[in-house]
Amino acid sequence: MTSRTTPQIVDAVVIGAGFGGIYAVHKLHNELGLTTVGFDKADGPGGTWYWNRYPGALSDTESHVYRFSFDEDLLQDGTWEHTYITQPEILDYLEGVVDRFDLRRHFRFGTEVTSAVYLDDQALWEVTTDTGAVYRATYVINAVGLLSAINFPDLPGLDTFEGETIHTAAWPEGKDLAGRRVGVIGTGSTGQQVVTALAPEVEHLTVFVRTPQYSVPVGKRPVTAEQIDAVKADYDRIWSQVKKSSVAFGFEESTVPAMSVSEQERRRVFEEAWQHGGGFRFMFATFGDIATDEEANEAAASFIRAKIAEVIEDPETARTLTPTGLFARRPLCDDGYHRVFNRPNVDAVGIKENPIREVTANGVVTEDGVLHELDVLVFATGFDAVDGNYRRMEIRGRGGLNINDHWGGQPTSYLGISTANFPNWFMVLGPNGPFTNLPPSIETQVEWISDTIAYAERTGLRAIEPTPEAEAEWTDTCTEIANMTVFTKVDSWIFGANIPGKKPSVLFYLGGLGNYRAVLADVTADGYRGFESADTIAA
Ligand code: FAD
Ligand code: NA7
Predict the structure, then answer these.
(1) Which of 344, 363, 379 marks a domain boundary?
(2) Does ligand 2 lie within 6 Å of residue 382's CB atom?
(3) How much is the pTM?
């Protein structure tokens, strides 16, 4: 393929300016000295936290471990006000990191990468943007986000709606819905946050509930300067624990089987976790088998259902909002979500048994014929997770192979980082990467990618890519681990089961960050086991 615009030659292209892209540009430019250009279609850095400006947007990872760990001074200079940090605080933090490491000048914001095509004869990637710019680079690092490609369901009649429609992941800065009649579709993590925040602001809130979810209190509390100092003094131990742990959320995971203790003891442990707060903590710090054993899972699930029943006053509303079956989606936590349904201005409409029939000029009509009149319809309907953003670009590897053809219905990778026939093309949080608190996993992958690139540069490797066999083996490993859990038994974005027409498949390595880091270290120590020994550039 030849390009019409004269290509600019760089060593590396980084796509995305969230945690992953920011760190990748820092590593490649500031540490390896490679000419590096980063792109983001957003007008600034932040990724997730640039886009998700909806009221109530909050990290559900505790503040002190929802950040980079790679720089001691950055850690010691960091601060936070509550046990959890809000979207504006995270955005501020990431902008600060970009400026601190002088990275802004390497990024082209407001620029979407439309294609990345491997030029076999030159062993270079040709990357094209929507501004018409063309770059050629030895390496491409995709940090395009795993929860970033928006899922915007096309409801019948949506184009006739005369009010406003807003997706939570494209929330206009400062958009205020005070005094409006608002509908929210979606009650996942995002839906719960936006509903809780909007309820006291808006004139009326109608929440369309398809699948109610298990959720525990987040436990957002103010922190004192002394508490922050204590964390900072202990950061070496904290990060070491995070990186050896499974879900990397900064707490010790339990190994005690739930059914090995008395019912009274189980209730005490659940109650303690409920009072402390945190979704992952409730699932993984209470007992060691809630995610793997159905009886243990039901014990946790019934505890949460009883709590919901205690809070919601109206029995029909409680029924609409009470989950059934396994507690097997990404564990959620909230800041008083169920309580808002006791407000006179908030209604829950169960759309499993009474689906949305259509959207009309004035609102949403359900199958029972009721028109729910609305000025604004908010979509908290989530994302085409993991591979969504890859499939939105034209990506061609060796011999013009399109990533969509390579992946077919199931996106795969070796180590969540690379894929066969796509040389020198790396992914941060690609398919079958770790399922954890994400910044430590992102750091792990970016560090491994950057070490691998340093190795390639040092040894004169022209290209590095995994073998199809290594990729197939990694897929099998991830599938085997996933099948040991209850997560596979429930539809959710973790398996791509939230997008109509998308084939559900394993998208994560559920073996934990500690084990994942050990695998990466082992692969490197074993001479990049599973990678093609690419030819050396002729001297
Ligand atoms: P992102 O932050 O998603 O950044 C990817 C960037 O790539 C985006 O800015 C996008 O515009 C850009 N991009 C994609 N394609 C292109 C293209 N073709 N051209 C140009 N630019 C492109 N994780 C946790 O661990 N804990 C949490 O509490 C948590 N809370 C979350 C809450 C919300 C509302 C959401 C949506 C996600 C949350 N996550 C959480 C996941 C979160 O996405 C990660 O923690 C992390 O921010 C991901 O960083 P990233 O750099 O990999 O991707
Ligand atoms: P989720 O968890 O995918 O939740 C999306 C919600 O939207 C969920 O309640 C869906 O119901 C609902 N949904 C999606 N499509 C429709 C249609 N067509 N009609 C009605 N309801 C629909 O996304 P979130 O943004 O909340 O969270 C994703 C992750 O990002 C989260 O874990 C955090 O890490 C941040 P369903 O359950 O499919 O019945």
Answers:
(1) 379
(2) yes
(3) 0.98
